[in-house]
Amino acid sequence: MYVSTELESGDVQEIFDDDGREKRTGTLLTASAHIITAVIGSGVLSLAWAIAQLGWVAGPAVLFAFSFITYFTSTLLADCYRSPGPVSGERNYTYMDVVRSHLGGVKVTLCGIAQYANLVGVTVGYTITASISMVAVQKSNCFHKNGHEASCSIESYPYMIIFAVIQIILSQIPNFHKLSWLSILAAVMSFAYSSIGLGLSIAKVAGVGHHVKTSLTGVVVGVDVSESEKVWKSFQAIGDIAFAYAYSTVLIEIQDTLRSSPPENKVMKRASLAGVSTTTMFYILCGTIGYAAFGNKAPGNFLTGFGFYEPFWLIDLANICIAIHLIGAYQVFCQPLYGFVEARCSQRWPDSKFINSEHVVQVPCCGAKYNVNLFRLVWRTAYVVVTAVIAMIFPFFNDFLGLIGAASFYPLTVYFPIEMHIAQRKIPKYSFTWVWLKILSWTCLIVSLVAAAGSIKGLATDVKHYKPFSTQQ
């Protein structure tokens, strides 16, 4: 719904875009910040463990392969924001709208299921990771005070509740494009904790008497793991790396925040290059130096697994940065879901005052006014509560990240961008370009399937030995 006002034609052009929506103000900087916020997330924390499972050769190779594929397909997806042409066509506001414009049919439904299930999974994963980081702050102080061998058993559930309360408040921000400040803050935090983790790893490697076991192929069968564990954990490591590059689910929504000049697809491609290349540099450094620091015994989360104990205040700072970053990243991933549900409900029940009416509320002390929508308040609050409850029931960091990464990488990062590119450019069937794009697509499908299998195996193993709502060590 848009409120009509009596304005001069020039004023209308200044306030609204060519599609009648509020004028977009996003730039290369804000788009890059959104991407870095979405990409450098909890995935970076598991990379030392992932490299340990794959080894010095396969680990970095898989990282580079995922970064190249992610950037390549993101450029294809950026061209699909407008249709039929990438510069002058009509805007598509969501990933589903893009698929509807280029492919149509049942693929739209399949895209919606894949995208929004992934968004739910990511927000659950971020709730888990943020709470683990806050627990790590308390544990770090406990170990510093009582010694490294002390028993510091701390529940993560209170921190999940605190995280959920913060998200309930932030979720009442109605428009995605108004979150640029939060993404910039979150991007700064992601650089901060990645740099701290990298610095601690370098210090550990350079420390006197440091010696850990590493190998070209990672953990050793018969010494570190059994033969079957080696296979399953290698598959899971691939899923963790796939999760580390998961941002295609929100690419269109990020692109929809950009101003129309210069063309959105060109700015988005530059933002994707800046975001993916920057994060890949951090990933390679954190993964390889983290592996050098911990060897084949690398923890699943290298900032909360307590391979580092001192200086405790620096570890505390890193984990606080993780929590702040994930507060912003949660919003980057949940806002598209909020928008989808609210738009559908508004279309379905256009006369409902509960769904469509905005109530102006005076904000105390500052004199500002805020529009409150009762449906937005109830629905977004309920969503945050549900994701927090799921996180409390299944607080498994590595397994959960691997499953989300495996489930989302193929359909959203590879399959749909490639299929839409073929449809948009009308690439002839069985031509050279068509064949190699299909080979890339099928290869990524196989990789996603084996990664999902490894993560499901890990989840099944963890669930056997887990009691929900018990104190976590």
From TrEMBL:
It is found in: Cell membrane. It holds the Pfam family Aa_trans. One of its GO terms (cellular component) is plasma membrane. Its main location: membrane. The chain crosses the membrane at residues 28-51, 57-78, 156-173, 179-203, 271-292, 312-333, 377-394, 400-418, 439-460. Keywords: Amino-acid transport, Cell membrane, Membrane, Symport, Transmembrane, Transmembrane helix, Transport. GO terms for biological process: amino acid transport. InterPro entries: AA_transpt_TM. GO terms for molecular function: symporter activity. The keyword Cell membrane applies. Residues 25-459 form the Amino acid transporter transmembrane domain. Belongs to the amino acid/polyamine transporter 2 family. Amino acid/auxin permease (AAAP) (TC 2.A.18.2) subfamily. This is Amino acid transporter transmembrane domain-containing protein. The lineage of its organism: Eukaryota, Viridiplantae, Streptophyta, Embryophyta, Tracheophyta.
